[in-house]
Structures are given as C-alpha cells and as structure tokens.
Amino acid sequence: MKYLTPLALFHELLKTKVRERGRLLGLDVGDKYVGLAISDPHNKIASPLSVLLRKKTNIDLMASDFQSLISELSLMGFVVGYPFERGRARTAPDALHVKLFVDDLSKTGKLEDLKYTYWDECFTSKNVELLVKPLDLHPVLAKTITDKFAAVGILQGYLDYVNKKVELEAPE
C-alpha cells in the first residue's frame, strides 16, 4: 500500500483514461467494525456500501475482502478516515488504531498496488448518531448504519474538496 497526499491521490486518478478510471472506497475504521462507502464512477458522489467486522485475527481475511472489492468495483484507492485536530494528526489512541489498521493491512502484502490517503473524520460518526438515534433502532442495526454513513461522510468530504480544488486549478 502506498500513501499519497489527498490531492496527489486524486491527481493519480485523473491521469488515467476516463473509461479506465477507478473509484474510491471510503473507510471509517472503528474498534469493532470498518464502515465502507463507495464513490460513483465519476468520483463525485459517495454511497454506503457495507460494514466489515474488524478483529486482529481476521486482517488477512479483510485484506482478501478488499482484494475482491478492488476487482469487483474497479477501485483505485482508499480514503481512510483519520482523527485530525486543527490540521494536525492526533496521537490519541483513536488515531493510533487507524494507523495500526492500515499498517496491518499493508503487512499482508495483498494490497501492494493500492494507493490510499487519510481524510479528516471529524464528527462524522457523531453526526450520523444524532440522525439515527430518534429512529429507535436495534443497537446493532443503528451501529451498522452509523459506520456505513460515517464512511460516506468521510468519502463525500474528500470528494467535495478534491473536485473543487481540481475545478479551481483548471485553466479557463
């Protein structure tokens, strides 16, 4: 796995021919689950995809799941939610578990060609929790919805930012 800055990841995507252009997968990495969101083929809109169970013992299985998603959905890269604090990465345990997750995935060797970037996950889960709470859903269902839509928030925030930047960079 290769880290790229947020704009560099998008520029890599834009270098490919439109017909061959891949999509992006947003990840909301939690202690127990990883929420997934997928971009549309034009990389403008994020949609919820699924939730993967996260265990230290199943990282190899998760890497295989990601391999399948990469080929099935023509994924080009991951946008991983990361807890930033005023533009700087936090060293809190929640930031550490995201970094360790990416490191563990990388160590499997199954995702060597994959590019990824980090994107601020600030309040994504909290915003979704506030919307889901009044629905009075079963706790497991509420958690699943929260994780998927937190991933949507991460990916959509990234897509909005990079598309706007690219639009501003374009010569008139």
UniProtKB/TrEMBL annotation:
<keyword id="KW-0378">Hydrolase</keyword>
<keyword id="KW-0963">Cytoplasm</keyword>
<dbReference type="GO" id="GO:0004518">
    <property type="term" value="F:nuclease activity"/>
</dbReference>
<dbReference type="InterPro" id="IPR037027">
    <property type="entry name" value="YqgF/RNaseH-like_dom_sf"/>
</dbReference>
<dbReference type="Pfam" id="PF03652">
    <property type="entry name" value="RuvX"/>
</dbReference>
<dbReference type="GO" id="GO:0016787">
    <property type="term" value="F:hydrolase activity"/>
</dbReference>
<keyword id="KW-0690">Ribosome biogenesis</keyword>
<dbReference type="InterPro" id="IPR006641">
    <property type="entry name" value="YqgF/RNaseH-like_dom"/>
</dbReference>
<protein>
    <recommendedName>
        <fullName>YqgF/RNase H-like domain-containing protein</fullName>
    </recommendedName>
</protein>
<keyword id="KW-0540">Nuclease</keyword>
<feature type="domain" description="YqgF/RNase H-like">
    <location>
        <begin position="22"/>
        <end position="128"/>
    </location>
</feature>
<dbReference type="GO" id="GO:0000967">
    <property type="term" value="P:rRNA 5'-end processing"/>
</dbReference>
<dbReference type="InterPro" id="IPR012337">
    <property type="entry name" value="RNaseH-like_sf"/>
</dbReference>
<dbReference type="InterPro" id="IPR005227">
    <property type="entry name" value="YqgF"/>
</dbReference>
